[in-house]
């Protein structure tokens, strides 16, 4: 097995230490399906021609810059936003004063989806999972006392990218800052929205036009601004392993390159302003290898377009540690996890980084948890001397082999996608989303069985409850926003607004740069909802296709006795009740987190439930009607974006209104324990938070249904 | 909770007592009046509960279901019954969304029964068709009911047909049944509808996408969906291929030669033509009296189907055979008895000892 001259000797010693276990028992297969030997040696590097290349030079494996952190460390860029623009602005300024280097704005879900705060479909979502922005007036407050010519600003916006980037540009204009001085990044990566992030507005085709219009506008007007941040992070958080993350992200990148070329630009006009965004999880070396592999592969893929500017082939990236790896149970452990992931990102050579807060699985960060998260980076950056040498792990036998393996595996997936006609076509076919969901389901099954350890969740469970402060955004934020909207509509020149909006609609119909066409509307104080709507009348609103996998959970769950015992109970339920337990799983409001609901749906079906799955973004009324028509025993609400206190009571009310008071309601997702009683009082009969094994929730759901059956009889 | 709980699983008599018990003690009971009135009033909640009653596999529910069915039967028969089948992912649900919306806009009341397969292994199912009928589902004049096949063909056939009749009684003018075209279910569905539409997609090749040729014999029209974008040309090619294929099968009637149409459910093209085809079919077959005849024939077929199913169920659950089944199975598997002998031994258990 080892090519090393003394390999045989080593094997013998190893076998002795292993006693009666075979040598194969210490070979590990990663979730990506990559085989990891217990030992690598110099011989393994012989075939790898890139190993002794240099940072700042192709293929950039060792880093895009020549000096890397020895000259300037990575940028500490924490993603944040909540409630109103005023509150977020205060928070930003405090963070900057305490050592944060760049800004990164998180918008709330109505803003992402192109709705003003007063829209009826967003009653539970305003200011909850990000900052609410309805017009340029809010943008100006958001950046109040933050000099936009000096501060680089990253904005995670994809669906409503035109009004938001427009708002930023106009806010800068009104600060007296000219376009060419603006630096930062707009995410503007629509493809992964259809795949995992779910804050799209329009169908893919017009959305791709918006992307390339922004690329065109910025490359002319804002040369220091990254026009796109091609993101794998969300794929990882939805379940993708490192190979899938690398492959899908770079395949998305290729699609944007082609969009730019189709729009008549030259590759060097826009590709140097591409930036990337990767997610970094707990598998320490795999994630370091992934970042290095991504750089190498991007250089290879981009070289095919024959760019003159080397920057066109250079992958620069932001990273975020994995929120999915963080637990609601024993949450201080999360600080340790985040530290490990932080090291991984840094050793992988990221250009900027967000580290998560320990209360990740409970709610938005508080001032305290945000400080610890930021300090994690400050400590690594300033106390550990990690920045002193470039790519310090370069040449590690193991890491270099892993890097090459990820390159090879990802290339295979990319080839497959190119074969399908590119990522847009692949997404249309549902292939990438199904792959990600399959990976997520397998992972869930492995964790539920304890095959993968999660400290504090499936092993070493602590029995004390740590008390700490939780951030809660009050319902009053919505009213504040609505009042501001009313005032705005009164004060502005409504004729001018109408004209600007009509011009925008016309541009959507007939062509012309949409970024340019948006700016007059923003300046005239048209709201984000109005601008989005002016485009929606032409483009329409995208409706996602919900595809489901089946059989994966049960097949990955090796302990068949547990599966069988639950199947027996669902079958007995049918004998007793005349049909299987039927449950409607629904997502209400603008919450687009669908990993949990999809995993629960496919697993429950594997356990013998009849599962109805609702479309995304339901109003409580729509969900209730579906429950009535499908005549389910139970509605299971999956809520992760803090809408639960508004939407779930509303659902129960609607069920009653339709005469469906017999239908039971349970909830799952990110629901802070302090809200449990509130929900029970509203009529919820079961709550299942992050980390609940599916087997356990299914068991309890059956208990609830069976006890209801009994009480009906007695 | 003594009697009711103790009664479950016992013989006929105690079961009757148990339901008596439920009637007196368990709050307002739902008798056939409740269901019949609710359905005829088109009360969405009761309509749904009635379909559940029809779906129930619990023997206790059969009598009530039968009684409700008897009472609503006079109100059925007026709807246009449309069956849609085709390859998985072919766009059946999307077509129903688009076609259904068009019909609602024309003033029709539209009911949809979307059947999804249950897993043979777990018995469970994921019903996702309705996510593709978002607009239709939101209409006041539409009703969309997803259903799982369950474990037996007889079961799904019965509940699909009865659900269809319940919807008719509730006043829906068009009832559409969606099934995935990979089993025997389509044949059964074809024999309960007026118009049987087989949906295909371009790029099939000549093996006809795993759809059995037999299904084409039942088709009143073949529609090639996804005739949009880059696919348009392929769709037109497929149209020709299917036209040729259809020439080779005998039409069910000389009055109607099943056409091959193309459409895009997504881009809403060719939908009007589909509907016109349905109407034309209706007109032609009504004029010759064949539509009436078809329904009469279906009623007969249906009766025999039910008798078959009933016999089968009776046979497998019969106390004299039930106990023998595992033993016989073992003997067949080990080759110690021939299948012919095994079957006749089993049948003799009931047939001879009775006569
Ligand atoms: C993954 C993730 C994402 C992914 C989502 C991918 C996808 N397609 O689902 C991405 C990266 C795209 C994402 C984006 C955002 N996210 Co996010 N995300 C998470 C994260 C890290 C994990 C959620 C998850 O999938 N866990 C794994 C699944 C399997 O677990 P689960 O859903 O909890 O389900 C389990 C149980 O809860 C239960 N369960 C759940 N539902 C149901 C239903 C029933 C009936 C039953 C029985 C059981 C049950 O069973 C499951 C198995 O155990 C959480 C934090 C965390 N650790 O929980 C933040 C989190 C939910 N996200 C958050 C935010 C703010 C966002 C954004 C809105 C940020 C922004 N402003 O842009 C965006 C936009 C997303 C959108 N469109 O809604 C916040 C929400 C804040 C809050 N509630 O107050 C969280 C809590 C992080 C944080 N602390 O800031 N996110
Ligand atoms: N391009 C194109 N895609 C379509 C069309 N109709 C449906 N689709 C897409 O095809 C996929 C499957 O559509 P469905 O309507 O769910 O197909 P189905 O036949 O009902 O699928 P199952 O019920 O799962 O067998 C979805 O992604 C649709 O968006 C169409 O006319 N053109
Ligand atoms: Mg369907």
Question: What do these coordinates show?
Answer:
- The complex is a heterodimer of chains A (714) and B (355).
- Chain A is an alpha/beta fold.
- In chain A, 50% of the residues lie in helices and 9% in strands.
- Chain A has 28 helices and 16 strands.
- In chain A, strands 7-6-5-4-3-11-10-9-8 form a nine-stranded parallel sheet.
- The longest helix of chain A is centred in the middle third of the chain and has 24 residues, at 397-420.
- Chain A is globular and about 85 Å long.
- In chain A, 55% of the residues are buried.
- Chain B is an alpha/beta fold and 355 residues long.
- Chain B folds into three domains: 20-72, Single alpha-helices involved in coiled-coils or other helix-helix interfaces; 77-287, P-loop containing nucleotide triphosphate hydrolases (Rossmann fold, 3-Layer(aba) Sandwich); 300-354, Helix Hairpins.
- Chain B contains 16 helices and eight strands.
- In chain B, helix 11 (232-247) links the parallel strand 7 and strand 8 (260-262).
- In chain B, helix 3 (32-40) packs across helix 4 (44-55).
- Chain B is globular, with a radius of gyration of 23 Å.
- The chains are: A alpha/beta (714), B alpha/beta (355).
- Chain A binds chain B through residues 543, 545-548, 550-551, 554, 567, 570-571, 574-580, 601-602, 604-615, 622, 625-626, 628-631, 658-660, 710, 712-714, and chain B through 1, 4-5, 8, 22, 26, 44-45, 48-49, 51-52, 55-58, 60-61, 118-119, 121-128, 130-132, 134, 137-138, 143-146, 148.
- The site of magnesium ion has 4 residues of chain B, from helix 6.
Q: What separation lies between the terminal Cα atoms of chain B?
A: 43 Å
Number of domains of chain B: 3
For the biggest sheet of chain B, the summary is: 7 strands, parallel
Largest sheet of chain A: 9 strands, parallel
Which small-molecule species are bound to the chains here? cobalamin, guanosine-5'-triphosphate, magnesium ion
Morphology of chain B? globular
> Which consecutive residue ranges of chain A, at least 5 long each, have pLDDT under 50?
none
Strand content of chain A: 5-15%
Q: Give the strand line-up of the largest sheet of chain B.
A: 4-2-5-1-6-7-8
Q: Could you name the CATH topology of the largest domain in chain B?
A: Rossmann fold
Number of strands of chain B: 8
Fraction of residues of chain B in helices?
A: 40-55%
Described by its quaternary structure, the protein is heterodimer
Which overall shape of chain A is indicated by the principal axes computed on the Cα atoms?
Answer: globular
Mean pLDDT of chain B: 86
The count of helical stretches of chain A stands at: 28
The CATH architecture assignment of the largest domain in chain B turns out to be 3-Layer(aba) Sandwich
CATH superfamily of the largest domain in chain B: P-loop containing nucleotide triphosphate hydrolases
């Amino acid at each position: 097995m080892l090519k090393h001259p003394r390999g045989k000797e080593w094997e013998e010693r190893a076998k002795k230490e292993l006693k009666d276990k075979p040598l194969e028992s210490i070979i590990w297969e990663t979730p990506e399906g990559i085989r990891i030997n217990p030992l690598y040696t110099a011989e393994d590097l012989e075939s790898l021609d890139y190993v002794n290349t240099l940072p700042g030079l192709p293929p950039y494996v060792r880093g895009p810059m020549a000096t890397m952190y020895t000259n300037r460390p990575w940028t500490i860029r924490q993603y944040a936003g909540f409630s109103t623009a005023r509150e977020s602005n205060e928070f930003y300024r405090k963070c900057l004063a305490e050592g944060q280097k760049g800004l990164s704005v998180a918008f709330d879900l109505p803003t992402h989806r192109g709705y003003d705060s007063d829209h009826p479909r967003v009653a539970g979502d305003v200011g909850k999972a990000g900052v609410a922005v309805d017009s340029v007036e809010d943008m100006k407050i958001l950046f109040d006392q933050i000099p936009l010519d000096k501060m680089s600003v990253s904005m995670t916006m994809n669906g409503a990218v035109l009004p938001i980037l427009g708002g930023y540009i106009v806010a800068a204009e009104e600060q007296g800052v000219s376009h060419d001085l603006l630096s930062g990044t707009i995410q503007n990566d629509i493809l992964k929205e259809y795949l995992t992030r779910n804050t799209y507005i329009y169908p893919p085709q017009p959305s791709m036009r918006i992307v390339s219009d922004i690329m065109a506008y910025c490359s002319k007007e804002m040369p220091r601004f990254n026009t796109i941040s091609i993101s794998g992070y969300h794929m990882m958080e939805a379940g993708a392993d490192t190979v899938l993350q690398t492959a899908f992200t770079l395949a998305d990148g290729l699609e944007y390159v082609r969009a730019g070329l189709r729009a008549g630009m030259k590759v060097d006009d826009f590709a140097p302003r591409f930036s990337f965004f990767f997610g970094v999880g707990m598998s320490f070396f795999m994630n370091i290898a992934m970042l290095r592999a991504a750089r190498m592969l991007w250089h290879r893929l981009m070289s095919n377009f024959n760019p003159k500017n080397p920057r066109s082939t250079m992958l620069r990236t932001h990273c975020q540690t994995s929120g999915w790896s963080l637990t609601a149970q024993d949450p201080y452990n999360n600080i340790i996890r985040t530290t490990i992931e932080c090291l991984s990102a840094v050793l992988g050579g990221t250009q900027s980084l967000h580290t998560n807060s320990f209360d990740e699985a409970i709610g938005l960060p508080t001032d305290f948890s945000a400080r610890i998260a930021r300090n994690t980076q400050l400590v690594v950056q300033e106390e550990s001397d990690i920045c002193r040498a470039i790519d310090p792990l370069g040449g590690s036998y193991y890491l270099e082999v892993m890097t090459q393996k990820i390159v090879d595996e990802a290339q295979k997936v990319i080839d497959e996608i190119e074969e399908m006609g590119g990522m847009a076509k692949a997404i249309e076919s549902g292939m990438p989303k199904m792959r990600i969901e399959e990976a997520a389901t397998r992972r869930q099954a492995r964790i539920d069985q304890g095959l993968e350890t999660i400290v504090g969740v499936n092993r070493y469970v602590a029995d004390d409850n740590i008390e700490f402060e939780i951030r809660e955004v009050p319902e009053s934020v919505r009213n504040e926003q609505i009042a501001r909207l009313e005032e705005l509509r009164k004060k502005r020149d409504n004729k001018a607004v109408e004209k600007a909006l009509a011009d925008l609609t016309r541009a959507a119909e007939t062509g012309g740069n949409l970024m340019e066409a948006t700016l007059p509307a923003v300046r005239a104080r048209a709201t984000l909802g109005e601008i989005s709507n002016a485009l929606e009348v032409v483009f329409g609103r995208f409706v996602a296709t919900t595809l489901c996998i089946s059989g994966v959970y049960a097949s990955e769950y090796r302990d068949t006795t547990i599966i069988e015992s639950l199947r027996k109970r669902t079958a007995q339920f049918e004998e007793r009740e005349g049909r299987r337990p039927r449950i409607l799983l629904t997502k209400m409001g603008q919450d687009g987190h669908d990993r949990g609901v999809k995993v629960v749906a496919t697993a429950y079906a594997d356990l013998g439930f009849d599962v109805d799955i609702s479309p995304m973004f339901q109003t409580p009324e729509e969900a209730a009607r579906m429950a009535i028509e499908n005549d389910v025993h139970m509605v299971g609400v999956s809520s992760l974006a803090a809408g639960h206190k508004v939407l779930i009571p509303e659902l129960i009310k609607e069920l009653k209104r339709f005469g469906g008071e017999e239908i039971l309601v349970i909830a799952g997702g990110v629901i802070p324990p302090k809200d449990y009683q509130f929900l029970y009082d509203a009529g919820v009969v079961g709550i299942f938070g992050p980390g609940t094994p599916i087997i356990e929730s299914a068991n309890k759901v059956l208990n609830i249904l069976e006890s209801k059956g009994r009480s009906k009889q007695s | 909770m003594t009697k009711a709980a103790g009664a479950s699983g016992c013989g006929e008599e105690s079961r009757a007592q148990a339901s008596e018990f439920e009637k007196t003690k368990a709050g307002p009971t739902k008798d056939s009046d409740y269901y019949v009135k609710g359905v005829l009033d088109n009360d969405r909640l009761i309509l749904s509960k009635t379909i559940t009653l029809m779906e129930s596999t619990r023997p206790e529910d059969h009598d009530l279901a039968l009684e409700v069915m008897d009472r609503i039967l006079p109100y059925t028969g007026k709807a246009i019954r449309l069956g849609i089948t085709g390859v998985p992912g072919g766009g059946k649900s999307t077509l129903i969304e688009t076609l259904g919306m068009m019909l609602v806009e024309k003033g029709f009341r539209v009911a949809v029964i979307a059947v999804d397969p249950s897993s043979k292994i777990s018995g469970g199912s994921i019903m996702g068709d309705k996510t593709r009928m978002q607009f239709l589902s939101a209409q006041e004049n539409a009703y969309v009911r997803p259903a799982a096949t369950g474990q037996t063909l007889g079961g799904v056939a019965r509940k699909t047909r009865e659900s269809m009749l319940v919807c008719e009684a509730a006043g829906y003018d068009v009832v559409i049944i969606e099934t995935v075209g990979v089993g025997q279910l389509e044949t059964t569905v074809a024999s309960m509808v007026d118009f049987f539409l087989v949906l295909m997609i371009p790029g099939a090749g000549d093996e006809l996408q795993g759809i059995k040729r037999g299904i084409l014999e039942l088709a009143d029209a073949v529609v090639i969906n996804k005739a949009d974008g880059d696919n348009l040309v392929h769709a037109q090619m497929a149209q020709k291929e299917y036209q040729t294929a259809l020439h080779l099968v005998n039409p069910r009637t000389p009055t109607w030669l099943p056409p091959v149409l193309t459409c895009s459910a997504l881009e809403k093209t060719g939908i009007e033509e589909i509907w016109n085809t349905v109407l034309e079919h209706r007109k032609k077959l009504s004029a010759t009296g064949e539509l009436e005849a078809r329904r009469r024939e279906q009623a007969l077929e249906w009766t025999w189907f039910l008798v078959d199913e009933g016999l089968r169920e009776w046979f497998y659950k019969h106390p004299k055979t039930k106990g023998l089944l595992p033993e016989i199975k073992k003997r067949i598997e080990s080759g110690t008895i021939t299948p012919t002998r095994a079957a006749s031994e089993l049948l003799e258990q009931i047939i001879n000892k009775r006569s």
